[in-house]
């Protein structure tokens, strides 16, 4: 009985309750639809937002709900970023009572600041970053009183930063970066924003303002980003109050004056300090990162017991310290050199003096030191060699003196050492441990003794500058083993015969100023054992080499037959093929296999497998690439990756039409491009393309590459740019092929295939040896090599006097030895194109810069190359200096 009574009692409120949920749901859904109605959704990102869909509105794209107090679901967050939305941001959205987060970042909204959103009473986060918002921020911005996060960055907002912002007392994040704000920033705006954790006013080039001193009162601030704006004047003393700061970026402004004396005391959380590229001067506060406790400690040693005081941990989190390109003098803070987490110290181009202390050995994570062009006066400390994470140490143009400690290059990842233009003496220590060393410059010091032959054992050493010292003895023969691009030993006291390849071979060699050196072409030609004997040696060697090569190739051929035999047998047993086409092709695997076996099939080899040009029964041609090793990937990944590559549509990229696969083979079918590869064209003796066509080819290739790098999603790297992978159609329109094969064969197979490909190493960027990850810059280097091939008319790697000559090194050597860049231009091209070619040469040299960060992006390359077409005048200073700025890059400030 009791039960039959209770039931209606329960049912009634339940009905009521669910009706309530239902009606509120309808309302909220309707509000969302009204909001959608004013939005233009060209790619239909909001297709789930529909009153006919069965999906609950809380499950619509970007919508998130939370249970409110009445236990009903209510929309609390709209995350609609990156959906290509435009149109109008309607205030109707504020009818959602619980909306606290609205993220419309990365869209195309093109309107003034949507002030009416201040009606959203619960709104805490408003993110409009990266849209096309314009106009000024009106003072009424103060109406957004509940906001905690306000992000207007990367829009076109202009005008002054309004006072009204000062009322948003709950703000924790304020990002106004990358806009067009102008005028000065009113200081007291920040006085009330005591909750602020992130303040970003960076990249507002039209600001002309002092740094508001009130910022110093924001005790909770962790990130302060003011870089690349128009701030001038001093760093406010009030900054001493920013005790919680983790990132401070003041770089690239017009700041003057000194750094406040006590800045850095108590910055226990600071991770990155950047004041570079300003006009700051005076001495850097020595207290910066100097443990207060340490000072106390020294005064009170006798009384010091117990734990280390907190202040001892000064700057213990600092990773980056950058003050380069200012006018600082005095010492760098001593404590800086031994911070436990410091990775980067840049102070070049100042007037710092003092020493590098031996305690640098404690900086166990230090990676880069750049202090060139200062007035440091000390020995190179032994402690430096104990830092095993260091890969760049650049300290040219200072007053370092004394012997180099024998361990100075012991870091196993050391790549760049520049100690040129100092006062170092003693002999050059044996370098054996730094097997990643690419560039060593010890020029213009007072080193004595011999050039250590152990240098020849550093496998990737490319730039070696020992000029202007007092070195004696011979040039070690072993140095011929290195692939040097620069070898400079001028103005020493070296003697004896110069190793053959260092005179006639690739590197830009500088030998002058050593009267006792001898060899062909030098003033002194080694009379005691004339050149006849010289040539006997190489000839004999060549003969032996050829014999060995012959024997090896016989073995390879034999092995090849064996493998072929084995695999063809195997195939006839298994022989199950599958195929996927992205274009309508009437082709069977029978056609393919037959076509590949036919005598008429033109085929050429490559690291990843052979390419066959096959005529299909219908009469059309396709190019089929038979991949060698596709072991690493599952069929599913393989298909997905190939599909991904097949979706690429660009006029300068070869179309992938489809593929065939069996258990052990993969055949990629590409469109056939009539003229074949640029590489094949260049190596023909009658190679004779006029300049305008060459320019068209490189611009097209650059566009294809830029598309892979930046426009195609996902971004791809080509990883195998070379002239043989640029195909030309009837109109000489270039098409990249062999792109992104790493995606298909897998990284390790990719690496070993590339390593096996002889004759292509000239396209590989020098940092390849020590960088684990492939980068855009590596592609850009390879592109630069192709550009050089077209400018010079030489192949990337060309055999000359029995030696393989790399075009990059050949060009640099010519330019530096002969004082005339025009000598490298292809003489088959008429001289009216010379200016354009010179412009292209400059681009090519930048692309092949040994420093990846100095290479332009592909977009920049395209712009530069396209501008050549119209450009009739180069800057008059351009070639008058005679020598190009090609080699000084490795020794940032080489003398001219
Ligand atoms: C659904 O929305 C459309 C347009 O927004 C409206 O015309 C229609 O009446 C709505 N249907 C229902 C059932 O609410
Ligand atoms: C949203 O979808 C999930 C599963 O797709 C479902 O479990 C959940 O109940 C849905 N939420 C609403 C409010 O309909
Ligand atoms: C947005 O539009 C651009 C071109 O207008 C297009 O390239 C891009 O793929 C679109 N993004 C999305 C997420 O649809
Ligand atoms: C705003 O959205 C963008 C894009 O999603 C994001 O990068 C940025 O961090 C967001 N801003 C804040 C303050 O969270
Ligand atoms: C800061 O707060 C005080 C007191 O609430 C108020 O008088 C002043 O106007 C505020 N400052 C700004 C810039 O809004
Ligand atoms: C620095 O000030 C000069 C004029 O004094 C101005 O030309 C220059 O643009 C300013 N630089 C920056 C980064 O604001
Ligand atoms: C560098 O600092 C020294 C004092 O340490 C000073 O004598 C010298 O003039 C400064 N040089 C320059 C170029 O500022
Ligand atoms: C370098 O410092 C010394 C003092 O240590 C000073 O005499 C000299 O002028 C400084 N040189 C330059 C170029 O500033
Ligand atoms: C080389 O040594 C001679 C004396 O042997 C000395 O006069 C000269 O200054 C030294 N040159 C350099 C650059 O150290």
From TrEMBL:
Has keyword Translocase?
no
Cellular component terms per the entry's GO annotation:
membrane
Signal peptide location in the record? 1-25
Q: Tell me the superkingdom of the source.
A: Eukaryota
Molecular function terms from GO: ATP binding; protein kinase activity; receptor serine/threonine kinase binding
Which keywords belong to this entry?
ATP-binding, Glycoprotein, Leucine-rich repeat, Membrane, Nucleotide-binding, Receptor, Repeat, Signal, Transferase, Transmembrane, Transmembrane helix
Q: Principal localization?
A: membrane
- Transmembrane regions listed in the UniProt entry: 541-565
* Name of the protein described by the UniProt record: Probably inactive leucine-rich repeat receptor-like protein kinase At5g06940
Protein species of origin: Nelumbo nucifera
């Amino acid at each position: 009985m009791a039960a039959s009574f209770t039931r209606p009692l329960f049912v009634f409120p339940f009905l009521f309750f669910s009706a309530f949920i239902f009606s509120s749901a309808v309302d909220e859904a309707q509000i969302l639809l009204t909001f959608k109605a004013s939005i233009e959704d060209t790619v239909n990102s909001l297709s789930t937002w529909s009153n006919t869909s069965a999906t609950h509105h809380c499950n619509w794209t970007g919508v998130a709900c939370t249970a409110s107090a009445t236990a009903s679901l209510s929309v609390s967050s709209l995350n609609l970023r990156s959906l290509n939305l435009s149109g109008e941001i309607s205030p109707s959205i504020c009818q959602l009572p619980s909306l606290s987060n609205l993220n419309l970042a990365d869209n195309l909204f093109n309107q003034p600041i949507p002030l009416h959103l201040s009606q959203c009473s619960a709104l805490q986060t408003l993110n409009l970053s990266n849209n096309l918002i314009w106009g000024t921020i009106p003072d009424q911005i103060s109406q957004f009183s509940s906001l905690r996060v306000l992000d207007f960055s990367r829009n076109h907002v202009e005008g002054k930063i309004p006072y009204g912002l000062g009322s948003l007392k709950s703000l924790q994040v304020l990002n106004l970066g990358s806009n067009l704000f102008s005028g000065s920033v009113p200081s007291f705006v920040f006085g009330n924003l005591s909750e602020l954790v992130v303040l970003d006013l960076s990249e507002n080039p039209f600001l002309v303002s002092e740094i508001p001193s009130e910022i110093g009162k924001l005790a909770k601030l962790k990130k302060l980003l003011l870089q690349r704006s128009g701030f001038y004047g001093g760093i406010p003393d009030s900054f001493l109050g920013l005790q919680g700061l983790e990132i401070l970026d003041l770089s690239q402004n017009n700041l003057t004056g000194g750094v406040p004396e006590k800045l850095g005391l108590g910055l226990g959380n600071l991770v990155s300090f950047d004041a570079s590229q300003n006009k700051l001067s005076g001495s850097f506060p020595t207290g910066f990162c100097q443990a207060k406790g340490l000072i106390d400690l020294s005064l009170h040693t006798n009384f010091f017991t117990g734990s280390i005081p907190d202040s001892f941990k000064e700057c213990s989190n600092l990773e980056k310290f950058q003050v380069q390109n200012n006018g600082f003098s005095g010492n760098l803070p001593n404590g800086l050199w031994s911070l436990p987490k410091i990775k980067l110290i840049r102070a070049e181009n100042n007037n710092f003096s003092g020493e590098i202390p031996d305690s640098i050995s404690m900086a166990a994570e230090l990676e880069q030191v750049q202090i060139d062009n200062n007035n440091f006066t000390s020995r190179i400390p032994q402690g430096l060699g104990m830092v095993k994470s260091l890969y760049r140490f650049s300290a040219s143009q200072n007053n370092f003196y004394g012997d180099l400690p024998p361990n100075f290059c012991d870091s196993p990842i050391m790549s760049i050492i520049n100690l040129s233009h100092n006062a170092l003496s003693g002999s050059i220590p044996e370098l054996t441990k730094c097997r990643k060393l690419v560039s060593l410059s010890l020029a213009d010091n007072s080193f004595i003794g011999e050039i250590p032959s152990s240098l020849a054992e550093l496998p990737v050493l490319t730039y070696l500058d020992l000029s202007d010292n007092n070195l004696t003895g011979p040039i070690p023969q072993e140095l011929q083993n290195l692939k040097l691009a620069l070898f400079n030993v001028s103005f020493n006291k070296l003697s004896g015969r110069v190793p053959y390849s260092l005179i006639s071979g690739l590197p830009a060699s500088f030998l002058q100023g050593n009267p006792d050196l001898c060899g062909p072409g030098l003033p002194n030609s080694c009379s005691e054992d004339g050149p006849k004997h010289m040539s006997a040696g190489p000839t004999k060697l060549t003969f032996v080499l050829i014999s060995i090569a012959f024997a090896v190739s016989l073995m390879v051929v034999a092995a090849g037959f064996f493998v072929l035999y084995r695999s063809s047998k195997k195939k006839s047993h298994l022989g199950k093929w599958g195929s996927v086409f992205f274009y309508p092709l009437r082709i069977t695997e029978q056609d393919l296999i037959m076509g590949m076996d036919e005598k008429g099939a033109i085929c050429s080899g490559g690291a990843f497998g052979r390419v066959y040009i096959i005529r299909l029964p219908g009469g059309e041609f396709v190019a089929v690439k038979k991949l060698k090793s596709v072991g690493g990937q599952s069929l599913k990944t393989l298909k997905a990756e190939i599909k991904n590559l097949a979706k690429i549509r660009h006029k300068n990229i070869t179309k992938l039409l489809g593929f065939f696969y069996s258990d052990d083979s993969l055949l990629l079918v590409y469109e056939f491009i009539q003229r074949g590869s640029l590489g094949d064209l260049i190596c023909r003796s009658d190679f004779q393309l006029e300049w305008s066509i060459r320019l068209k080819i490189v611009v097209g290739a650059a566009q294809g590459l830029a598309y892979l790098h930046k426009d195609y999603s996902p971004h791809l790297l080509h990883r195998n740019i070379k002239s043989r992978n640029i195909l030309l159609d009837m109109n000489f329109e270039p098409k990249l092929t062999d792109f992104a094969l790493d995606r298909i064969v897998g990284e390790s197979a990719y690496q070993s295939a590339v390593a096996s490909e002889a004759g292509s190493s000239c396209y590989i960027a020098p940092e390849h040896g020590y960088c684990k990850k492939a980068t855009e810059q590596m592609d850009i280097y390879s592109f630069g090599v192709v550009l050089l091939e077209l400018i010079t008319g030489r192949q990337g790697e060309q055999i000359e006097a029995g030696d393989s000559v790399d075009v990059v090194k050949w060009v640099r050597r010519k330019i530096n030895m002969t004082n005339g860049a025009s000598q490298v231009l292809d003489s088959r091209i008429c001289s009216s194109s010379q200016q354009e070619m010179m412009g292209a040469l400059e681009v090519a040299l930048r692309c092949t810069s040994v420093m990846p960060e100095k290479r332009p992006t592909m977009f920049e390359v395209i712009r530069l190359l396209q501008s050549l077409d119209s450009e009739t005048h180069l800057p008059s200073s351009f070639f008058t200096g005679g020598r190009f700025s090609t080699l000084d890059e490795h020794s940032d400030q080489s003398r001219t």
